Give the backbone structure.
Amino acid sequence: MTSIATAGASVTEQHAAIAGGRPWQRWVLLAVGLTVALALPWFVYPPVAMDIAAWALFAVALDLLLGYCGLLSFGHAAFWGGSAYATGLIAIHFGVPFPVAILGGALFAMLLALPIGYLSVKRSGIYFAMVTLAFAQMLFFIANQASSLTGGENGLQGVPRSFFGIEAVETDSFFFYYAALPIILLGMWAAWRIVHSPFGRVLVAIRDNAPRARALGYDVERYKLIVFVLSAGLSGLAGGVFAVSHGFVALPELHWATSGEVVLMTVLGGIGTLWGGVIGAGLIVLLADYLASSGFDGIGIVTGGVFVTVVLLFRRGIWGTARHLWLTRRRRVGSS
Amino acid sequence: MNAVLQYTVQGLAAGSFYALAALGLAVIFGVLGVVNFAHGAFYMLGAVAAAVLLDTLGLSLWGALIVVPLLMLVFGMLVERLLVQWLLPLDPLYNLLLTFGLTLLLVDLVKRRYGVSGLPYERPDVLSGRVQVGGVGLPVYQLFVIGVALLVCLGVWLLMTRTRVGMIVRAATERPELAGALGINVGRWVTPVFGFGVALAGLAGVLAAPFRAITAEMGSDFIIILFAVVVIGGLGSIVGAVVGGFLVGLVEAFGQAYAPTFAQVLIFVLMAVVVLARPAGLFGREEATA
C-alpha cells in the first residue's frame, strides 16, 4: 500500500525532493520564489498578498509533518488559530512591536502542541488524523466559551500593528507586507533546513518504515513529537502574521474547516514537496478571493469539488506532477 | 434524584444519535477501512430530507423513519460506487480527504438551496408532551428516540451475530484475507455495507429533525463528537460505537447540567484519558501499529 505521504512518487522523485535537485536548479527556484514573493503586492491587493504568504507558510508547516513524517494532522487550526489569538492578545495588552507578538504567538502554539502531540503521536495514520482533529476542536470550544478573553463569536477585535513607530508599516498594508515577509521567509527557511538536516533524514526513515527506524535505535515517538511541535511553531508564525495583517482574529480560524483548508492546499500543491504548499496556498487564496468578490456564496462547493477531484485524479498535486514530468523527461533524454 | 433521572434520559437521548451514527461509522470502517468524514453531512441530509418531505409531500415522521433511510441507502451506495471505491486500494487517508471534500460540497449545496436559518419540523402529537415517571415529567420524544435507537442497535447486533450475512460481514471485517481464502466474496459486500452505514446516519438525522435545529451546519460539530465517540469506543468495534455513543451523550448531558462551561470540553477530556490509558479504545483490539 502506498503511503499518502509519497503519493505514488517513485524513489527517484522522493530523492529529488530531499536533495532538492541539482544545485543550480535549487538556486533558480529560490530566485524565482523570492522574486514572486517580492513582486506579489504589486500585482494583487496587498492584504491578499499577505494572506497568500501566511497560508503558504502554514501549508509548508503542515507538509513538514505530512510529507516528511507521514502524519496527517487534521487539527492544525489549533496552532494557526491559537497563535493568532495569542499574538493578538500580546499585541493588544503589551503594545510590543508586531514581530515580538508573533514570536510569542508561535511559542504559545508550540506549548499547545506539546500535550496534543504527546497524546496524538501514540497513534498513526487515520487515528492520528482523528485525534488531532478532536483536540483542535476542543480548543475551538474553549475559545468560544472564554469570550471575556477571546471575544467569543465576535472575535478578537482591534489587534494593533505596532512597528517601532514607523507609520508607513503600521497603516499601509503595502509596506506592512514587506515588514512581515521576513518572518514568513524565515519560517520557510527553517522548514527547508529541518527537512535537509540529519534530523529530517531520520523523519523520512520513520515515515517509510517506523519499525526499522525503531530497531535502529531511534525513539520514534520522540522524533514525531519534536516535528509535531516544530510544525506547530511554524504554523503559529503564519497564524500570527495573519492575525496582525487582518487586525482581528475570528473564531473560525480555530475551526476544523481551517485545518481542512490547509490540508487541501498541501495536497493540491503536492505532498512532500514543501514548494507545493506555496503554490496550493496561492491558488486557493486567489480563488477564494475571486469567488468572494464575485458574490458567489458557496465557496465550499468549489473547494470541496477541487478536493474531491485532486484526491481522485491528481494525487501527486501540482508540484509533484511537474517534478514527475521533469524527471521522466530527463531520464528519457539521458538514456537515448 | 429526580434531576439525575431527567439528565440520564436527556443524555441517553442525545447519545442515541451518536450511537446510531457511530454504529454506521464503525460498520463502514470495519468492512472498508474508510473513516467517513461525510457522516456528519449524511446525518444532516437525513434531517433535511425529513423536513423537505414533510413540507412538500406531507410525509409524517413515521413515514420519514422508513423512507429517508432507504433514500440514504441508495445515495450511500452511489457515493461508494462513484467515488469511494476508486481509493480503496490506496492509503485510507485518501478516503478521509475525499469524504472531507464531499462534506464541504454537500453542506454548501444545502446552504445555497435552503438558506442558513433552520427548517421547521413539527413532531407528531403522540410524541409531544411529557410522561410522569416516579414524579418526574420526562419528555415523550426523548424516550421514543432512546427506544428506537436501542431497537435498531439490537437489530444490527442480531443481524451481525445470528444471520449468515452478518457472519460474512464480520468475517470480512476481522480477517478479510482469511474470509477471502474461504471463498467468501468480500468485495460484494462493500457497496451495500457503505450504503447501510450511511442509512444509519440518515436515520439518526430523521430522529434529530424534531429535536434539533435543522441547518446545513448541524453535522459540523456532530462529526467531531462522533470521531471522539469512535476513538473512545474503539474504531471498528460495533459494541464500542454504541457504548461510546451513549457514554458521550451522558457526559454531555451531565456536563451541561453541572458544569455548563466545560460540557463540550469534558468529552475531549474523556477521549484524552482513553487515548492515554487504552490507545485502542475501550472495546478496540490492539492492532499492530507502525
About this structure: The two ends of chain B are 48 Å apart (CA to CA). The mean pLDDT of chain B is 88.
